[in-house]
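Figure 2 data, in text form.
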Amino acid sequence: MSPGDTSVGPTAGTQPPLARAAMDRAAPYRRDPQWLTRAWPRSLVLVVDGAAGGRALVRDGADGTTLVLVRPDRAPAVEVTDRIFIGTVDDGTPVFAVDAVPPSPVPEPSVAVPGLRSVTVREVGHLLSDRDAGLFTTAAAMVSWHARHRYSAASGLPTRATDGGWSRVDDSGTRSWPRTDPAVIVLLTDGGSGPDGRCLLANHHARRGDGASRLYSCLAGFVEPGESAESAVAREVAEEVGLTLAATRYVGSQSWPFPGTLMLGYLGRVDPAQPLRPDPEEIIRARWFTRAELAAGLAGERLDSGDGYRVRLAPPASIAAFLIRSWVAEVAPDPGR
């Protein structure tokens, strides 16, 4: 790729990779125990290993990467109340998720199966179909929520799953439901177009990297109580790099089930003449990248951080990667333009 070529191909996409879903959540059935009982024998089951970080099996083949869904007789045995009803797909087939080690597809677990691997949503979310992306993201988030809510925060009593896995209740009747934490993520730009336009990426302490490379990504943070998403964007930008926003534009959102976050994606325009003042407790280094630089990096060319390390960009399933690719391809208009 030449320095002036900023195309990134179809992976720029039109929506964040984990914002896709092609299933019916069929919420009315969650409180119908008889329907759930009848649905189980004809269902498909997604086995998610919560203890291993939400891993499930996928198969790589000529048709791409697909989730491995098994019939109930092949699924690990779990209590009825531990079956999480995800929804229905295709012609109305019910789909359940269970938290367990995925079953071995062959008699001998030590025998490798070509094309079969254990992965997280982070690794393959962008490769999956709309149906499989929605199923995996939902199942991973729900398995994580159940694992973290075995006891009631209000009473301290043990809880059990009800409503098809969509709530938990203790013996006193205190009930809890899955919660999603809103977080904002923003790609800052100078408003410039073409190969010389620039965006700001940072290497965070939480994503330091290895001995040879550093992960550079967008600025992000959780929305605080009493705060709007737009106010959170402005606050995070000021706190993390000391810049004042000139304009913002909402781009899109996606679930990030690690463990249960809704990422709200923004583009922000700032005056690049402002001095960068990275927060040393959060940011190791922040720097401006041109559109041409990032296009080359996305095409596989070496991208240097400027302090001796190779730059790694956000993983393809993340909304950060979506924001970066969309900006590079100039399919997401800059704020105020």
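Caption note: The radius of gyration is 22 Å.
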